[in-house]
Amino acid sequence: MIGTESISRVIGQDVYDESGSKIGSASEVYLDDETGQPEWVTVRTGLFGTKESFVPIRDADLTNDGVRVPVSKDRVKDAPKIDTDGHLSPQEEQELYRYYGMGAGGTTDTTRTTDTTRTTGQTTQSTAGMAAAGTDTRRTDTRDTGTRDTGTRGAVGHDTSGPTTDDAMTRSEERLTVGTRSEEVGRARLRKYVVSENVTETVPVSHEEVRVQREPITEGNAGRAMDGPAISEEEHEVVLHAERPVVAKEAVPVERVRLDTETVTGQETVSETVRKEQIEMEGAEGTGRTGRKAKDALDRDRDGHVG
């Protein structure tokens, strides 16, 4: 059950259907004018979140992950197309009750949490009474009646869009929080393959050649010279040798190769749209007419300037 104290936690949260499928993000919460309890939440859907659909929040649950509503995603997708202008008329609310098969919560108007009903001091009518008469409280305005303001000056204001709280409203704004996350952007790998190339080396080689040596007969070789017949035929043979190049191959390790990473830090600029609430004053004291907006005066007070 989501109460009024949880409204600020609902806005901006992800909305999931009864099966856990994400529908979209919560945009605005609408309160029942009579009970002051949250009745509807508008959910931004579509590819860029440009479409808003009304979803019942009466029996929804607020978890750490977001808001879980008791309807299906397809049901929300085909919901009646109703403008999110800050207020639901009784007819629009009854149409939503019928579509979602809910018991009607009465014929009271439903107002967004940031809407304000315009009334003057002498012709102020209760919200419940106006809703019972089928009157759109958002458009109630007596600025053209010329009625003088006879209300008590200095009275404490009250919340016209829901239950009475105190004499002030809270202005909130979104703050941009920027961080980083690590994600995979690519892969690199080492691949080993074989290529062939010609290698030329110069190797010295040697060979034997025959040459004839002649020596005279001396006392030292006369004995050997006279060995054998005096006249005969004879042959002598010499074996010649030569070197030839020989090639052999062997695989030897030459280096180790591995992949490593290096972190390089740079700067990136990001931009995003944030929302903030503005509070404006309407009405002129003692005139009975709605005066011009006094946004500039409020801004001066907020900045500490004296008017």
From TrEMBL:
Question: Which residue ranges does the record assign to the DUF2382 domain?
Answer: 169-280
Q: Where is the composition biased (Basic and acidic residues)?
A: 136-151, 293-307
Please indicate which superkingdom the organism of origin belongs to.
Answer: Bacteria
Task: Give the compositionally biased regions (Polar residues).
Answer: 263-272
Compositional bias (Low complexity)? 107-135
Query: Matching SUPFAM superfamilies, A to Z?
Result: PRC-barrel domain
One Gene Ontology BP term is: photosynthesis, light reaction
Q: Which InterPro entries match?
A: Bac_photo_RC_H_C (IPR014747), DUF2382 (IPR019060), PRC-brl_dom (IPR027275), PRC_barrel-like_sf (IPR011033), Stress_Response_Assoc (IPR052967)
Q: Where is this region: Disordered?
A: 103-170, 263-307
Question: What are the PRC-barrel domain coordinates in residue numbering?
Answer: 5-75
For this entry, the protein name equals Conserved domain-containing protein
Which species is the source of this protein? Trujillonella endophytica
